[in-house]
Amino acid sequence: MIRANDNYSKLKASYLFSDIAKKVNEYQQQNPDVHIIRLGIGDVTRALAPAVIKGFHEGVDEMANDVTFRGYGPEQGYAFLREAIAKNDFQDRGADILPDEIFVSDGAKCDTGNFQELFAKDIKVAIPDPVYPAYLDTNVMAGRTGEYENGRYNGIVYMDCLKENNFLPNLPDEQVDLIYLCFPNNPTGSTATKKVLTAWVEYAKENHALILFDAAYESFIRDEALPKTIYEITGAKEVAVEFRSFSKTAGFTGTRCGFTVIPKDCMIYDSKGEKISLHAMWNRRHITKFNGVSYPVQKAAQAVYSEEGHAQVKSQIAYYLNNADIISKTIESFGFDYIGGKNSPYIWIDGAGRDSWDFFDLLLTKAGVVCTPGGGFGRCGKYYIRISAFNSLENVILAMDRLKEALK
Ligand code: MLT
After folding, report:
1. Is 79 a domain residue?
2. How many domains does the chain have?
3. pLDDT tens-digit profile of 114-159?
4. Domain residues for 32?
5. Residue 264 neighbours by CB under 8 Å, 6+ apart
6. Distance, CA 277 to ligand 1 centroid (Å)?
7. Is the CB of 186 under 6 A from ligand 1?
8. What CATH number did the domain enclosing 295 receive?
9. Which atom of ligand 1 lies closest to the CA of 247?
């Protein structure tokens, strides 16, 4: 008899953003005349930058000629892209990362979700609350949790991120083996200083733990004092893996490209306590389960690092950050407490005791504006909503005008 993986029955019926899309689509069907403004899922709206499109076209044209055509590429990514990443994103910031420590992939969601496959089932996993749901759900699927009770899975060490701790997870007071961190944070938009990350790196070293550091939003950091990569922290190469994405940095949500950095110094342990190279393990997994990102997409990603590409994507980020400023100012003018929006495209708003799904319904039905209910990111988000700055300036201004009316 073909039997199911019982762990799937522990999951909530649907993935957060699918639930929201369903609700929004139903509302739109019932109200076809409403112009809905989507500030929910962090999906970019601006066209790919001209330099990126040029790189993309060049890649496509090469595929149209027998002489330059490419079949299977290296699973880990073409050298031209890995070299550009290592130099621009790491070495130029003083982080000594080599091209062969970079694994190009189809995005950070897949990599952050798949990475847990490398670890034993009975490790202790620490996850912030609120959190990007893919980290948690994939550990549930793998059988690393018990049942879901009172908004939480048994067996997970939840790290509450609240106003009291500036939405920064505290170091766990029990020993954990795997730690998920995301900065600038999704969903709260909070950021971590070098001091904060240093404490985590030291914790991981002392406890032989591993940090999975999601830096998908690093390009939104405006404050020069903040670290853009965990490898700016001494010792991080031994205890941290970093996930990056071109999705939010350069508008690749529909194009798909990201990468994971696994320094060769990073070791984990087998059941006898012997060291194992994490780099070698992921490489084995990657070449078995993944056949590489398409050549034109990697050419497009390479163009992000050209002089013009860099300037163009920087101006796209500035555009979204300007939206974030407008949203933040409006929210502030209503007297709501919020965090984020400064070094992040997300604004995390305290609904002052209003349940997040009620707040979501109110904004949808009274203003035609879609946000993300904080409760979907965990118990600590129950009274928060997240507003994303990914939309056109015109739509953001219109959405804020509508919120002024709706929340009067
Ligand atoms: C979000 O809205 O949290 C993100 O867009 C989701 C994602 O990147 O998968």
Report:
1. yes
2. 2
3. 999 999 999 999 999 999 999 999 999 999 999 999 999 999 999 9
4. 6-47+308-407
5. 98, 101, 277, 279
6. 30
7. yes
8. 3.40.640.10
9. 8
